[in-house]
């Protein structure tokens, strides 16, 4: 569990750094070219790592999940890069986190990924959203 917390914190710093870099790059490259270059670099790096470190099974279902993830990643990258360029890093990430948490609660409520809804989760998300509102204003 400690490793998971550490990795989540590292990912948070990486996201804040990446969106700042993306906003700067998008001013020169444009959003579409940035997404293309970023997606290629991500895909190449991850596939090379997967082929060296594991023996992935390329089933149709797994590949479709990978394609869907890539398409969602494109939407995420474009949306956040644009939002950072317009409103700044803290505002964009506050809105991103709030929307992720609300979607997570909906997924948990319907049991889509095996997790369950709880009052503690609902209260925690509400408090984070209140903090996000303070950042956005």
* SSE series: HHHHH
Structural class computed from helices and strand pairing:
mainly alpha
How many separate structural domains? 1
User: How many distinct helices?
Assistant: 5
End-to-end separation in angstroms reads: 34 Å
What percent of the residues sit in helical stretches (DSSP H or I)? over 70%
Poorly predicted runs of 5 or more residues: none
Radius of gyration, rounded? 17 Å
Q: How many beta strands in the DSSP annotation?
A: 0
Report mean pLDDT, rounded to a whole number.
89
In terms of DSSP E residues, the strand content is under 5%
What's the oligomerization state?
A: single chain
Biggest sheet character: none
Structure characterization notes:
- α2 (31-53) crosses α3, α3 (60-87) runs antiparallel to α4 and α4 (89-109) runs antiparallel to α5.
- The termini are far apart.
- 86% of the residues lie in helices and 0% in strands.
- With 137 residues, the protein is mainly α.
């Amino acid at each position: 569990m400690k490793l998971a917390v550490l990795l989540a914190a590292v990912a948070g710093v990486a996201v804040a750094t990446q969106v700042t870099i993306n906003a700067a790059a998008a001013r020169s490259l444009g959003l579409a070219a940035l997404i293309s270059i970023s997606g290629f670099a991500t895909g190449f790096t991850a596939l090379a790592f997967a082929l060296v470190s594991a023996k992935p099974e390329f089933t149709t279902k797994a590949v479709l999940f990978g394609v869907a993830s890539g398409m969602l990643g494109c939407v995420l990258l474009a949306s956040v890069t644009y939002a950072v360029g317009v409103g700044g890093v803290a505002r964009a990430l506050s809105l991103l986190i709030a929307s992720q948490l609300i979607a997570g609660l909906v997924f948990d409520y319907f049991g889509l990924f095996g997790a369950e809804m709880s009052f503690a989760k609902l209260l925690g998300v509400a408090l984070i959203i209140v903090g996000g509102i303070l950042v956005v204003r």
